[in-house]
Design a protein that fits this description.
Helix content is 25%, strand content 33%. By secondary structure, the chain is an alpha+beta fold. Residues 15-172 form the Putative restriction endonuclease domain.
């Protein structure tokens, strides 16, 4: 983080947030304030990459995109960086994806940041109208799939190692948790 970040006073505008240079830390904008967490671990990144690889063909067949670690505007002043998203066909040159273009959002739970993924982001994503939320526990390799119902999510399935997650929306795909360690 640069000295300018620490010298900043008051709320952050989206323009100021987007002007920050890339860092090893994950910097998100939550209600005009910066939320900084350490960069992901190699295990976290491996799971994310393997999940993206598993989804790539079915996502393309559906005319959608699967992206890792991109800015998603949930509402003005609220821009998290989910681990993975499935989106409509969007302009890849834009620095921010609007929530209305996100069909599924995925977070890989980090032990040091579990509450943010399980509570805060879950609430924010549902409030923004994102239909599907996939939580992957990197310690147990358990995948929890949620579907939005009103302003919150309802758990639709829990998939543990040795089982198969069968997605039917927003794409048809099968994912085995143990394959995320390949």
């Amino acid at each position: 983080m640069t000295v300018a970040v620490f010298d900043h006073e008051g709320p952050w505008t989206e323009e100021e947030y987007l002007a920050l240079s890339e860092t090893q830390d994950r910097v998100e904008l939550f209600d005009w304030s910066l939320h900084v967490t350490p960069g992901p671990t190699p295990l976290h990144q491996n799971i994310s990459g393997e999940l993206r690889a598993a989804l790539r063909a079915p996502v393309r067949a559906a005319g959608l995109r699967v992206l890792e670690a991109v800015n998603v505007r949930l509402r003005p002043g609220r821009i998290p960086i989910p681990d993975l998203v499935i989106t409509n066909d969007i302009d890849l040159r834009m620095p921010v994806i609007n929530a209305s273009d996100v069909r599924l959002v995925c977070e890989i739970i980090s032990p040091s940041n579990a509450a943010t993924d399980k509570v805060l982001k879950m609430h924010y994503y549902a409030a923004a109208g994102i239909e599907w939320y996939l939580l992957v526990d990197q310690e147990s390799l358990t995948m929890h799939l949620y579907q939005r119902q009103g302003a919150h999510y309802v758990e639709r399935s829990v998939t543990k190692a040795g089982e198969v997650l069968e997605l039917t929306e927003p794409v048809r795909a099968t994912i085995r948790p143990e394959d995320l360690l390949a």
